[in-house]
Specification:
Elements lengths: L1 H9 L5 E2 L31 H13 L5 E11 L6 E12 L2 E11 L2 E2 L5 E2 L2 E8 L5 E6 L7 E2 L16 H5 L8 E9 L2 E8 L6 H6 E9 L5 E8 L4 E13 L2 E11 L5 E14 L22 E2 L8
Antiparallel strand pairs: 2-3, 2-16, 3-4, 4-7, 5-6, 7-8, 8-9, 10-11, 11-12, 12-13, 13-14, 14-15, 15-16, 16-17
Amino acid sequence: MAGSNREMRQISTFLIFACFLHLLSPYIEGQRRVKRNSPIDTVGEAPNQKLGWEILQQFRSIGWDGGYQWRIQLKIMPRREKSRYINGIMYGDRNAEGPISRIDIVEKPADVDASGNHIESSVLRLLLQSGPNAYAFQIRSSENGPPIVVESDDIMEGIAGSELSLFDLMAPYVYWPRFEYEGRKTFRGGPTHLFWMYPPEEDAFLNSRISGVRLYISDQFNVLTQAEIFDSRSEKLKTIYISGVKKVDGQAIFSGMDVRNELTRDKTRLRVIDASMGLELPGSLFKVQSLTDDLQNQQIPSVRLEDFQSVE
């Protein structure tokens, strides 16, 4: 039983990344897709809100064992244009406030012009703190001056022309205090809890853009399998869902996360190309000062917390 409990703790929430980066795939190998509603489904039957609060609290409390390092790739897939790729690197951990991550995304790789002159790469450097008091700092390698706080009206913008935004990566909606537990339903082959999360009343910008976010939390694995973002008129704007899962260093992580614009049908896929889990990372990595240089230029010591067996 102890081994089973440990394995469940290793299946964790993503807060992406960053909150949404702590998500796992709903496509659990060997699960049977259910073609009819289950008798245990309670959506539409005035479910117990106290029970919903307990489920949500348990979901928020789970995390991976130790820090991690991921090499990531964004596949930007406009519906009517050719797909393109951008790469990055991400370090993540958890502090007293919640999930925290330091990310570099190469918006423009180094190149040479027609005269053979070197063109420097442009790297977007991010520091993302998720949790009840979420915030974000950013700077580009091509910019002078200190890192800046990302304001609310910029947090919804797509990164490097993709459908993935800082709002998606941080997933602050997981921690919004106002919610409605909508009940349990069979979703993608397993019992799933549905929650409607309301934006904070004091955030005028969010309320002008978003009426709510629906969360799908697996009852079996206590992980987020899908999120749907709705505009101020309650029309669906975006769907975020896990498209793959793998096991690395004894811990299960997602290998693909899709972000689909429901208005344009454009899509962006975040893939984890390479990963190391169960790391002890220096606290200085998650300070604003770390944004003064690209991650690839920094000496980042990391120590294994445990001896995990790598499984691909």
